[in-house]
Every structure is written in structure tokens, then in C-alpha cells.
Amino acid sequence: MLQCLKREPGFYRYLWGLTGPIALQNLITFTLGLMDTLMVSWLGNTQMAAVTTANVPVFLLISIVFGVQSGLSILVSQYWGKRDMEHISRAIGVAAMLGTGLTVVLAAVLYLWPVEIMDLLSNNHELSVLGAPYLKLIGISYVFNMLSSLYVSARRSAEDAGFGMKLFAMSTVLNTGLNYLLIFGKCGLPALGIQGAAVATLLARITEFAVCSFCAVRSRLLPIQWRAFFRPGWEMLRRFVKYSSPVVLNETAWGLGNSMLTVILGYTDNSVEMLAANAVMGNLNRLFLVVCFGLGAATAVIIGKSIGEGRSHQEVMDLSRTLLVFTALVGAGLTALSLLLVPTLFVPVVFPLFKLYGESAAIATALAVTGFLSIPLHAYSISAVTGVLRAGGDVFWSTLLDVGPQWCMALPLTALLALVLKADYWWIAAAIQSESLLKVPLCALRIRTGQWIHDVTVRKERGQ
């Protein structure tokens, strides 16, 4: 198996050159979520549980943003292999129009009915009233985030992974500073509490969008052809819908599934402790997965570009095997490191910092151990689904393999253990991670067939 890791000189330098900035970008983004959670936790466990509940529909918005962004990257990475700037501009234009439309509608729903939506997610009406002001504003911020993320995705697919890292670093520093000022009322500003976190995020996203727009106008690497951007044509719309709509549905269903896990925890007898522990460990787990997400995104760029360049079927298969094995090995290393930190850092230092004591700390420990043990499985499946299969245009199977195990295994098992059998939290934590046990072998079987390799640009000349 390890024979496939032997590649031409410079391959791994190129891989880490793509992975590093993307991983840092994800680290910056997840750190922002962690800082939000930390500052809100200082207000109390009830406030943190309210924000966790409010972030259930917000996570659905995030998933839609990521879905449109991932769908765009399928087209851009292969067109980049052909250096076809006109069709890259057309793809960005279609993605911007469809993505903005989706987020505007959802943001309007969250703004108009925040309490009613939150009442569906928890059996505690106090959390709904407390979190509603946060939910009303946070949805609007993702309209701006959608547009910024699409351009960042296009730049990443054109092998410029550093742009997103710099942009989101700027917005994260701004957001964190505004959080401190507006949550606690520093420097003469009003203490807005939970609502202050939403205002800070909205202002940071608007600034992020303004900077991104300025860079897009002046870019030489990826100059947008504005005529093609604003008039992308029906053929590009058809192609984007064909290859991107399954990805958007995939991420939406996956995001809804993750939201349902939070809803299940919100209906347990100890819902406040469960939600508080899950809020902290959800962010900490993602911090350890940033390298895996980076490798998955880099895999998508490399596979998509290789197909666009017209490499042979066997070359693409060998390349995918190398990337997947390497990612799994990196995941194993991350597991060893993270498990060492549970008794030495998380339990004695991090959990008290987030006001997790007693039962909340015990639940967080269970979530930490089960989550960290699953990192190699998550690493493989992330690169298999978001990297290999999607970049190869195999959007139907990537969607089925990503969503099926979650809805058919993890969700019903977690609901059964948490709400019906009232099982110990260790069993509930294990059930949350159970989907990977099914997803990994299914992904491996699909990739082995080689039927996932498609050139999505093949009809370019005939179509227009």
C-alpha cells in the first residue's frame, strides 16, 4: 500500500504548498467559532446553549455556502487545467447569482421568524427567546460570506490557496475584536451580549466582502471577464446545475443532518449540559481536522486540474490513491497527538476555561475521545468525497456516499440511544461518529472502480 506514496520530486512540496494555506484558512475560520464560543461561555452555560441552538439553522446556511463553493470548484479546477478564463468567469457568475438568491431567501426566513424556528430545535423556550436576536442578524452575514467564499474558491482552484487565508485572517481578527467590544460593552460601546456576537460577525463579513470585491477587480491571476460574468449563458447554467446542484443538495443534507444531531441533544433530559459540551467540542474537533480539510481541498484542485489537462485514466487513478493513503496517514498522526492532549490540556485547562464542570466536562471528554479516534476515518472520507469524487465530476455517488451513512446510521442510532434508551453519554458520543465506519469502505469501493473520472468541460466547443 505504501508503494503508492512514491511520487516525482517536488510532488509533496506542491501538495503542502496548496494544503498549508487552505488549512490555515480553515484554522482561522474555526478559531473564530471557538473564540465566539469562549466569549459567550463567559456569559453562562444557558447563553452558550442558546447560541448553540441558534447555530443549528446557521450551520445549514454554512453548508449551502460550502455546497455552492464546492460545486464551483469542480468546474473552475478543470477549466483552469485548460486555462479557459472566459468559462471560469461564466461559472463564477452563475454561482454568484444562484448562491446569493439562496442565502437571501434563507436569511429573510431567519430574520422574520427567529423564535418560531428555535422553538422547533429545543424543548426550552427560554433558549429560543435568548437566541432570537442573534439568529436574526447572523443569517444576513452569510449573504456577504457567500460572495466572498465563491471568489476565494475560484482562486483556490486556480492554485492560489494563499488569497483566502489572508482574507479570512483579516476578517477573523476584526470579528474577534468586535466580539470583545460588543459582547461585553468595552470602549464605551453598549454591552449587547449574545446579540453583540451577531453584530460583530455581520460587520466583519461586510468588510470581508468589500476587500474581496476590490481584489477581484484588480486580479491578474484570475481576471474576471465581466461580460461573461453577468451574462454566463444557458449552457453554463445547465452545466453548473448538472454538476453543482447535487453538491449543494449534498452539503445541505449533510448540514441538516449535523443540525439534527444538535436537535437530538437539545431534547435530552440534560440538554443544557449536552449542548454546552457539544458546542465546545464541535469547535475543538474541527480545529484538529483543519489539515484534513486542507488536504481534501488540495486533492480536489490536483485531481480536477489533472483531468482538465487530459491525463490518462491510470495516471489519475494512481494520483488519487497516493493522495488518499497520504491523507489517512496524516489523520492517524493527528489522532495520536489529540488523544495525548485530552488528559494533559483539555480536561485540566480548556474545559474549565469554557466553564465546563461536572457533567458537562464528562460529556465533553466522551465527545473528545470518540471524535479524535475517528480522525483517520474522517480524513479519508473528506478527501474521497470532497477531493477525488467531486473533482472527478462523480457528483451523484459523492452525494450518496456522504449523506447516506449519516442519515441511515448516525442519526437514527444517536436518536435511539439518546432519546429512547436514555443511554450513557459515552454511547451517544460513539453513535455520533458511527457514520464513518460505513462511509470509508463504501468510498474505497467506488474509487476502485475508476468510473468516477469525467471531464466536465468536454462539451465546451459544441455547447457554445
Automatic annotation (TrEMBL):
Any one Pfam family match given in the protein's UniProt record, by short name: MatE
Transmembrane segment boundaries: 12-34, 54-76, 88-113, 133-152, 164-184, 196-217, 247-267, 287-303, 323-354, 360-380
Membrane topology value: Multi-pass membrane protein
Major subcellular location class: membrane
Keywords: Cell membrane, Membrane, Transmembrane, Transmembrane helix, Transport
GO MF, one example: antiporter activity
Keyword Glycosyltransferase found: no
CC per GO annotation: plasma membrane
Alphabetical list of InterPro entries matching this protein: MATE_fam, MdtK-like, YsiQ
Entry coiled-coil feature ranges: none
Cell compartments where the protein resides: Cell membrane
UniProt keyword Membrane, yes or no: yes
NCBIfam families referenced in this protein's UniProt entry, alphabetically: matE (TIGR00797)
Name of the protein in question: MATE family efflux transporter
Organism ancestry: Bacteria, Bacillati, Bacillota, Clostridia, Eubacteriales
